[in-house]
Amino acid sequence: MDRLSFEKLVQNALGRLPRRFKKKLENISIVVEERPTAELLRDMEIDHGTLFGLYQGVPLTERGWNYGNMLPDRIVIFQGPIEEAATSPDEIEEIVMDTVIHEVGHYFGFDDAYLYEIEKEKINTRERGKMGGEEGGNHRKNQ
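RESULT FIELD:
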């Protein structure tokens, strides 16, 4: 997928966030990069696997009364790893949506453990929907 098409998926994912969250996104830059650097993976102690996205900044829950005049927080969505993990264009879109939600969750102060629980619930709901005969398109079984 070309970069422009991928960036549109990221913009669409942001547009699908609930209004109450979108209204609170301030001073944040969301960018697409090809892939995380080896140095970043090393710094994050990721020996196996890779990153789909990364939040860099100070979560809202950790900002004090004197927080201000700061550079924007940053969310990076890594195109290469997402495309490599997906088996279809629909799955790329789904992974982008999940990744954007995950990284925006960090902006709001949620930690990985909490966000993974939400993601696990979402996967379980999808699987139950498939077993119950509900239509749902192409969904990933593992994250």
